[in-house]
Specification:
The complex is a heterodimer of chains A (about 160) and B (about 325). Chain A is α+β, with helices and mostly antiparallel strands and about 160 residues long. Chain A is about 35% helix and about 15% strand. In chain A, strands 2-1-5-3-4 form a five-stranded mixed β-sheet, with helices on both faces. The longest helix of chain A has 14 residues. The N and C termini of chain A lie far apart (about 45 Å). Classes of the chains: A alpha+beta (about 160), B alpha+beta (about 325). The structure holds flavin-adenine dinucleotide (FAD), iron/sulfur cluster and FE2/S2 (inorganic) cluster (2 copies). Chain A: Keywords: 2Fe-2S, Iron, Iron-sulfur, Metal-binding, Oxidoreductase.
């Protein structure tokens, strides 16, 4: 199978990869760039574990192909902290017990960052509706909502 | 996923040439890539149309024009959508998730494929996926399936929420193909399954959806979209209804009603609409209209509940619209 080159700026750094055209953005991040923070849950757009920001917008990395994002800027969970300083939403997840097993957490946090930036975090009900693309099998929802409310209140 | 070749096109002409040579358009990919991974869709050549300048949302006079590549989220949040047709925003925000709405395009939304579980199970009989193999849903699990427009060959519902709103609003599509350009009502995009459920829409091979046009409605329009589903968000409709009412001096001058989740295509309820004209906007009239909507419904073993749910959803949506200032 022929491969194709794509260059994607991931967490501020231009990364070039050669991959099969079938490679999803999720597999490009995980398998080619070894950024395994972004999780593969359903691989069908149904769980949100793979949420990343592409040019600032949250999308499901599993339902898009890497080559569609040549030249784009992608932010993953690995790109949120500044050095050792956690992103305020990461800190809020710890404060509020926004996780149990942690599998959905990178997707929840990246999605939550976008939810706040979009201005969709003004109430618990609004957060519930606008975070519904992120499923948590452990049912850590109360902590997740509390964390997003807390971080939204501070920003 | 089967291997494929791909190209990115920059102009409509390039896109049409690539499609004429057998290429398949790729927009947001949220339907196509999902089904390619399941090997339900097996295109040999993908034509990435995302660089085409077709993402614009604008008003022309009092019509709303939406480019085929505009994203669901952008259409839902656009000031012209909210000014001219908030019903469209409402239907979009009731669909999918924020992540999907950021990626998914309007053209792709209309052409999304059915959510019948057997369509995705490659070892199950399914006439839509493999013509002539039979329909597993008819004798199987069919609680989510259609009660209107079904055939003995397929009973799957059309899953788009947006399409229901556009059908209620008498929106039209502009498409371009090898034979030139044409426009037609969104309603006519969708086929009944009949004996050919594998044919879902009326686009000719290689035709590109360019734009949706939503005409201005009558004054004093009250419009609502009501979606009933198993969970409050991020779920396809069991039943949904879009209603557009024109009420003056406590009389209904015109009514448009379309339903989702119940038909093999977005279903316009013309008998119900006619029954409302001249009536006062009260529950009695709404119930009578809803009764006409379920006439001819043919429930399956698992979805008798949809008949009653459709009646009630229509009544509730009409009440919600009637209550608007
Ligand atoms: C988990 C999940 C939940 C969902 N929930 C909902 C829901 O509740 N309500 C709802 O309405 N939808 C829902 N969807 C469906 C989603 O809205 C569609 O997948 C999306 O709108 C498709 O758009 P796209 O741009 O990604 O299309 P693509 O996947 O890129 O394309 C879909 C089809 O359209 C064709 N195509 C695309 N653009 C054009 C064009 N301009 N001209 C001609 N052909 C074209 C492609 O060739 C392909 O056949 C859901 C999807 C998922 C995965
Ligand atoms: S309802 Fe249609 S899509 Fe579902 S199994 Fe029957 S033929 Fe296939
Ligand atoms: S892995 Fe992408 S949505 Fe589940
Ligand atoms: S913390 Fe376990 S899935 Fe959410």
């Amino acid at each position: 199978m022929s491969t194709r080159g794509v260059t994607i700026t991931v967490n501020g750094e231009a990364r070039s990869i050669e991959c099969d055209p079938r490679t999803s953005l999720l597999d490009a991040l995980r398998e080619h760039l070894h950024l395994t923070g972004t999780k593969k849950g359903c691989n069908q757009g149904a769980c949100g574990a793979c949420t990343v920001l592409v040019d600032g917008r949250r999308i499901n990395a599993c339902l898009t192909l890497a080559f569609m994002h040549d030249g784009a800027e992608v932010t993953t969970i690995e790109g949120l902290a500044t050095g050792d300083a956690l992103h305020p939403l990461q800190a809020a997840f710890i404060d509020c017990d926004g996780l149990q097993c942690g599998f959905c957490t990178p997707g929840q946090i990246v999605s939550g960052v976008a939810c706040i930036n979009e201005g969709h975090a003004s109430s618990a009900a609004e957060i519930q509706a606008w975070m519904s693309g992120n499923i948590c099998r452990c049912g850590a929802y109360p902590g997740i909502i509390a964390a997003i409310s807390q971080a939204a209140g501070r920003s | 996923m089967f291997p494929f070749s791909l190209e990115k096109v920059r102009t409509e002409d390039e896109a049409l040439r690539a499609a004429a040579a057998g290429g398949r358009f790729l927009a947001g990919g949220t339907t196509l890539i999902d089904l390619m991974r399941e090997e339900i869709e097996q295109p040999r050549h993908l034509v990435d149309i995302n660089a085409l300048p077709l993402a614009e949302i604008r008003a022309e006079g009092s019509d709303l024009l939406i480019g085929a590549l505009a994203r669901m989220a952008d259409v839902a949040g656009h000031p012209e959508t909210l000014r001219l047709h908030p019903l469209i925003a409402e239907s979009l925000l009731e669909g999918a998730s924020p992540q999907l709405r950021n990626a998914a395009s309007i053209g792709g939304n209309l052409l999304q494929r059915v959510r019948c579980p057997y369509f995705r199970m490659r070892d199950a009989a399914c006439n839509k996926r493999m013509p002539g193999t039979g329909c597993s849903a008819i004798g199987g699990l069919n609680a989510g399936h259609a009660i209107l427009g079904t055939s003995e060959h397929c009973v799957a519902t059309h899953p788009s929420d947006l399409a229901v709103a556009l059908v209620a609003l008498d929106a039209t599509l502009r498409v371009r193909g090898p034979e030139g350009e044409r426009s037609f009502p969104v309603e006519d995009l969708f086929r009944l399954p009949g004996e050919t459920p594998h044919l879902e829409h009326t686009l000719m091979p290689g035709e590109l959806i360019v734009e949706v046009r939503v005409p201005d409605g009558p004054p004093a329009r009250k419009a609502r979209y009501l979606k009933v589903r198993d969970r409050a968000s991020y779920e396809f409709a069991l039943v949904s209804t879009a209603v557009v009412l024109d009420i003056q001096d406590d009389r209904i001058l015109s009514a448009r009603i379309a339903a989702g989740g119940v038909g093999t295509r977005p279903w316009r309820m013309r008998a119900s609409e006619a029954a409302l004209i001249g009536k006062a906007p009260v529950r009695e009239a709404f119930s009578a209209a809803a009764e006409l909507a379920v006439r001819g419904a043919r429930p399956l073993s698992g979805n008798h509940y949809k008949v009653d749910l459709l009646r009630r959803t229509i009544v509730r949506a009409l009440e919600m619209a009637g209550d608007m200032a």
